[in-house]
Amino acid sequence: MTVVRVAFSNTLSSHLAAMHTPSRQIRMETKSIATRIQNSGLFRTQGLIGGKWVDAYDGKTIKVNNPATGEIIAEVPYMGKRETNDAISSAYDAFNSWSKLTAAERSKYLREWYDLLMTHKEELAQLITLEQGKPLKDAMGEVTYGADFIEFFSEEAKRVYGDVIPATSSDRRLVVLKQVGMYYPVGVVGAITPWNFPLAMITRKVGPALACGCTVVIKPSEFTPLTALAAAELALQAGIPQGVVNVVMGNAPDIGEALLSSTQVRKITFTGSTAVGKKLMAGAAGTVKKVSLELGGNAPCLVFDDADLDVAVKGTLAAKFRNSGQTCVCANRILVQEGIYEKFADAFLKAVQNLQVGDGFTEGVVQGPLINEAAVKKVESFVQDAISKGAKVLLGGKRHSLGLTFYEPTVVSDVKNEMLLAKEEVFGPVAPLLQFKTEEEAIRIANDTNAGLAAYIFTNNVQRTWRVSEALEYGLVGVNEGLISTEVAPFGGVKQSGLGREGSKYGIDEYLELKYVCFGDMNRK
Asked: Which segments constitute the Aldehyde dehydrogenase domain (predicted)?
């Protein structure tokens, strides 16, 4: 690399110092962020292999941009197969000793990592806002949410129990082992993570992996690598041994191929598009790896006539416009029963009109930019497709006057299920409104998709909540609530939205192997 990390830190400091915000407090915080990050050693611009910070072997780099300003904030290594293979070897070597630690010992390391993540909450949030664009308040929330997975699994590691099975005959004893002085961790894990939650999607995978005794090679998104590197730095500061956590970034196809082809990697965990997930699943078959996939969604939000209007509007607003609509559980189709449709549409429109768009460091902003130009063009094409098929734009429907990748919060009515806005995941700040008459019709429309990640229901009828929750073909259902993800509950979908679960006690099993042992001749004295 031709760029020195300290020089980047100075560039970051200059950029933040020049940034205008209406709040003096926020201005002072942004001016001091570079100093805080530099003092804590969090602003890393190299990959992590075997506990060492390294450049790409051929010196290639890739630029990291602030989507809110278009400015380059760093360059990081553009790595490929050679670096990934070395990271795999380091993880494999570290696995032998890390997996043999007791659960209590690994728990202490994870707890220390959690404490450091929370100690550096502000710096991590600033990094997230810089490279991803989400409002600073949301970024702070992500740090807490992401750290919570580390804390939860630091404790859950000590609660992995096996089973004793009733014997089939008097001279046998049957047991299922998950822990006998040690766990049976699956081995080296390749963790491929997205840009929309650059910290939480890492900790949700790495937390249970390390708790079980696995080691990891993390491949973060090229759009948001700085958060991943900062988290890895804190893992080192927590004393987690060298080689247990490795980070490579750059050439996604080459890195993916190295992870898939290696016999030392025994599991792939991925969050991202369904198309890429299918390729990874097919590639993992060559070495018969375990696979966990958290893929695309097409979340329906069902608002029934008997819903509390204020609760429904607030919950739907949160489910739709969080992170500028760039989450896999965002409400992608808002189905409103005809008896409440006009009232809901009016109230929802007023709420959306009040959403402030801008740089995430500006106080009061609730919607930042989209991640890149390709994301904006996708949103534009979906809106145009809907208009061409008879939909009406009630609000927004175009790029924001701020320019770059900002897009206006948008509400579209008269949407039909055959439009792209309803058929596919828009991943942007566009709320499509659809009408339905009966509960049966709503369920039919909601289930008319290959996706099955999240769904939302707003109703005050207790019986209906059970009926509809059971009928919806989704892995997650929010009832009168738009923000439902938490570290203590399982996260994952059905149909083409993925395989396996993350978070909760169920998430830790994804990183463990079971061993059945049958003891014979047990009647001998």
From this structure: 53-517
